[in-house]
Predict the structure of Iron complex transport system substrate-binding protein.
Amino acid sequence: MNRFPSVRTRGLTRRHFLIGGAGATVALLAGCADGSGGDTGAGASGAPAAEGFPTSVDHQFGTTELDRAPERVVALGWGDGDTLLALGVVPVASVDWFRAYDDGFGPWARERRGDGEVEVLTGPEFSPEGILAQRPDLVTMTKSDNDRSVYEMFAELVPTLSGPATDISYGTHWRDQTRLIAEVLGRPEEGQALIGEVEDAFADARARYPQFEGRTCSVVWWDEASYAAYVEGDTRVDTLRDLGFVNSPAIEELRGGDGFTVDVSREEAGLLEADVCVVVSMQPAERIEQDTLLQGTAMAREGRMIVLSDADAQNAFSMGTVLSLPYALDLLLPQLAEALAD
């Protein structure tokens, strides 16, 4: 099940890029170093390499190389914008996956964004021409649906960074996302330091809340028609696992394919049972409280179900980046502890 924006590719070919797009491709090629496109570097021919460059980063679809620090980065991957900001780079365009913020970034990232002008991409589909009109010298899509054709479409024209090989769409772990982007920017040490800070936050949380260890959890997307339970490899589940929880075995038994959720019918709400359940939704909490089937489960009756009604908490938890995770933990940890209190 895929609930995220995507790049619209139907009917588009390299020829369309080269002759159309309201001049987007012409502008892009004019700004590229050697006019050849592809992952061959964004620096001006013969320009001296900056510290940390050239860079060469392997990912699931090939290798991305840069001769110098990029100046116009488009963040297409989920959470890539956060990660760039954490590394001191303000992207020229970034995806607001949940259309939650006018400026495209949550409160955990706003200070780092500063006054830089960022084009906010909302979808549900993105126009490649619109993206290329930003004249990027780097496109990042480290956390995506792993569509090779989309990667190749951009990589023909501009250095493009994909994520590691994963068996689940949008399944790039925040550690890998941070590492890959830091490496292509020539800042691997900064990336590792950021990773270490978040790992320390998780270690501190596990020390403060030993009652989480080994307890089962479920994370559920709620809508009117059905439920969707997230599986291991999804950011939300991985966050709870990093706190010591174990995703519900009943949910894991339902998984198949490369999706990050499994569908659960309303009549099977009992399959969502766990020691603690976290519910996320685009709907108001009041609607979820009126769901008699879900509210009839033992976890709901006993106060072990957490509805993340705070939009910032929900977005930070769902995005799962080096910037959003500490923010999410501050809001989520007390609720998890209360849910498991005797």
User: Anything to note?
Assistant: The chain has a mean pLDDT of 86. The two ends are 36 Å apart (CA to CA). The first strand starts at residue 6 and ends at 7. Residues 188-208 form the longest helix (21 residues).
